[in-house]
Write a structure and sequence with these properties.
The structure holds 2 protein chains of 2 kinds.
Chain A: E1 3-15, E2 18-31, E3 35-39, H1 46-54, E4 59-68, E5 71-72, H2 78-84, E6 86-89, E7 96-100, H3 101-113, H4 119-132, E8 143-144, H5 150-164, E9 168-172, H6 180-197, E10 200-205, E11 218-223, E12 226-231, H7 233-242
Parallel strand pairs in A: 3-10, 3-11, 6-9, 9-10
Antiparallel strand pairs in A: 1-2, 1-4, 4-5, 7-8, 11-12
Helix pairs in contact in A: 5-6
Chain B: E1 37-38, E2 43-45, E3 51-57, H1 70-78, E4 81-87, E5 97-117, E6 122-143, E7 148-155, E8 162-171, E9 176-183, E10 188-197, E11 203-212, E12 217-226, E13 232-241, E14 247-256, E15 264-273, E16 279-288, E17 295-304, H2 307-314, H3 320-336, H4 342-360
Parallel strand pairs in B: 1-5, 4-5, 5-6, 6-7, 6-8, 7-9, 8-10, 9-11, 10-12, 11-13, 12-14, 13-15, 14-16, 15-17
Antiparallel strand pairs in B: 2-5, 3-4
Classes of the chains: A alpha/beta, B mainly beta.
């Protein structure tokens, strides 16, 4: 049982005009097995929340706390956060030329588990995880995210989640750029990891489409750098109907 | 060739060819006042059947090709013997030929090598440079019709070494020349991988990798002369630099003469600056005298570590230093994987890893 607690989080970025506050006091608690949908219009700060928790150097935390099972996440380096059990599935996964998927996965799993996986079991583990995501085995020999289609990138993110076995996963617009089939495969992957590992999920999305496949327990409306309304799955239906207009500044 | 050494003017550093080179650190290789020691220092290892390496009288083997390079001219003047490697026609060698040099002197010395590849022969020649030396070298490679040579040179010098060399390939009809120049060691290294064609259907691929740390000057001056129709060239050099005063120079001259219709050429140089204080010069230069070509292009980029790549790897639990190593190995993978010499590939990358970790501290 794990708990991620975000308290009064304020985050700024440096721009040409100086420091600009993006997150203006975010409060959110996620427990193992829970799925929290964070929904909001573009530019509301949803991705900033995701990247701040993961530790991207671009964002400066000006106040507030983030803890995982009582341990200060903000004091950790980026890799330490991953080792503590946090995972960020990125909206735009980065290409790493010359580094094969298999080398990357093995290096990451070795770092997270603290020892190299046994060759015999590892090959089978990767094969199974890939086939469950309908990924061609040849994929493992390609360079990380290089020349991947949108769907391949997202499947590759979920593949990593499956192998790294985090406690808390932040899925940043995982549905963007996916056709219906890819969305279904990726969502099934998320649900599988969730049921296997009692994963806590922060599901960031603009649209309600993915919520048909990944059922949220809680829905939070995000606007202007903070959560402005919270509720159960029924809140998503309301957003589907009315959009975000009422949350935007007039 | 019996011109006196003093006929060659000592470069001053103002010449286009020398303006990047730290002449005062060349150990006298370029200075007419210093006599180069004549030392054929390459040793062939287990030569396969159909190949031979012999020392020939330099008077019988003058330079076969034209060069303006003062050091090559001085080398030709200084040596009394030339190493000649012969690969007989139609000989298809499975295993590479290794020519090793493990020097231990800091006296300025000269060495000449001539590689003769017979028609339709297939071979790989690997020249390994280790130890310490102040070496002026001239290598001429003559490929006859339909020959195919992979030519690999490894500059794994120890600190203090100075190495100036010309690698000149003459490629005949339908012949294919591939060179891989790997430079990771030495205080000053200045290499001239140059190519000319003597028949149509010929092709050259010139690849290079260089890694410079604090105080190293690594210079590669590629020159491809297209003076023959329907020939092809590809140039791809990648370099990384780390540490104060790490310095690299890459010049890529490609000339397409009026006679070279149907030429297909592309050259590329990428540099990765890993720390402040390092400097990479990159000068691609394409001159075209005929419009009747298949294609001609060049690209040059010099950039820093991609923070997004590092963040991506770190966010998967990979520590920052390991992430940097992974990105650099990935950057060089395109070049290094073409060597097809797993032991050498691992040795070169391990050296880069080690030097990088020393710079980082």
């Amino acid at each position: 049982m794990s708990t991620l607690i975000i308290k009064d989080l304020h985050v700024s970025v440096t721009t040409e005009e100086g420091s600009k506050e993006i997150l203006k006091g975010v409060d959110l608690t996620i427990k193992s097995g829970e799925t929290h949908a964070i929904m909001g219009p573009n530019g509301s700060g949803k991705s900033t929340l995701a990247y701040s928790i993961a530790g991207h150097p671009k964002y400066t935390i000006t106040s507030g706390t983030v803890t995982l099972d009582g341990v200060d996440v903000l004091a950790m380096t980026v890799d330490e956060r991953a080792k503590a059990g946090l995972f960020l599935a990125m909206q735009y996964p980065v290409e790493v030329p010359g580094v094969s998927v298999s080398n990357f996965l093995r290096t990451a799993v070795t770092a997270i588990r603290g020892e190299a996986p046994k060759v015999r079991t590892w090959v089978g583990e990767v094969k199974t995880a890939m086939s469950e995501l309908s990924m061609d085995p040849a994929f493992a020999e390609r360079n990380v995210n290089e020349g991947f289609s949108g769907g391949e990138k997202k499947r590759h993110e979920i593949l990593q989640m499956e192998l790294l076995k985090p406690k808390m996963a932040i899925l940043d617009e995982t549905d963007s750029g996916l056709d219906v089939d890819a969305l279904r495969i990726v969502s099934e992957g998320v649900n599988r990891v969730k049921s296997n590992q009692d994963l806590g999920i922060m599901l960031i999305t603009h649209y309600t489409r993915i919520l048909r496949y990944i059922k949220p327990d809680f829905v939070h409306v995000f606007a202007g750098g903070r959560i402005v309304e919270e509720g159960g799955p029924e809140l998503a239906d309301k957003l589907e109907e009315n959009g975000y207009a009422e949350y935007l500044p007039a | 060739m019996s011109l006196a050494t003093t006929n060659y003017l000592t470069p001053t550093g103002r010449e286009e060819a020398w303006r990047f080179t730290p002449l005062t650190r060349l150990g006298g290789l370029h200075e007419s006042s210093i006599t180069l020691v004549d030392r054929p220092s390459l040793i062939a290892q287990n030569l396969p059947a159909g190949t031979s390496m012999s020392l020939e009288n330099a008077a019988d083997f003058p330079l076969r090709t034209h060069t303006d390079d003062q050091i090559s001219l001085r080398v030709a003047e200084a040596v009394s013997q030339v190493s000649v490697l012969r690969i007989s026609a139609h000989n298809e060698l499975q295993e590479p030929i290794f020519l090793n040099r493990n020097s231990a002197g800091l006296e300025a010395e000269a060495s000449r090598l001539l590689i003769l590849v017979g028609s339709h022969a297939h071979a790989t020649v690997v020249i390994s440079n280790m130890g310490q030396s102040v070496l002026g070298e001239d290598i001429e490679i003559i490929l006859e019709d339909g020959a195919n040579l992979r030519f690999i040179t490894l500059q794994e010098w120890e600190t203090g070494s100075v190495h100036a060399a010309r690698h000149h390939a003459v490629i005949a009809k339908d012949a294919t020349f591939t060179s891989h120049v790997i430079t990771v060691g030495g205080s000053v290294v200045r290499l001239l991988p140059t190519v000319e064609y003597t028949g149509p259907g010929s092709s050259a691929e010139l690849n290079g990798l260089y890694f410079a740390t604090d105080g190293q000057h690594l210079e590669h001056r590629v020159h491809v002369e297209h003076d023959c129709p329907n020939a092809k060239s590809r140039v791809n050099y990648k370099g990384a630099l780390a540490g104060d005063l790490a310095r690299t120079v890459w010049i890529g001259d490609v000339f397409i003469k009026a006679a070279a219709q149907g030429t297909d050429t592309y050259e590329l140089n990428r540099n990765l600056l890993l720390t402040d204080g390092a400097r990479a010069d990159s000068v691609p230069n394409l001159e075209i005298e005929t419009g009747d070509i298949v294609g001609a292009g060049h690209a040059s980029t010099t950039g820093r570590f991609d923070d997004e790549q590092l963040f991506y790897l770190e966010s998967r639990g990979i520590p920052a230093e390991q992430a940097r190593r992974l990105v650099i190995r990935g950057f060089f993978a395109e070049i290094i994987s073409k060597l097809h010499l797993s032991e050498v590939e691992e040795r070169i990358m391990a050296r880069i890893d080690k030097e990088l970790s020393e710079v980082a501290q």
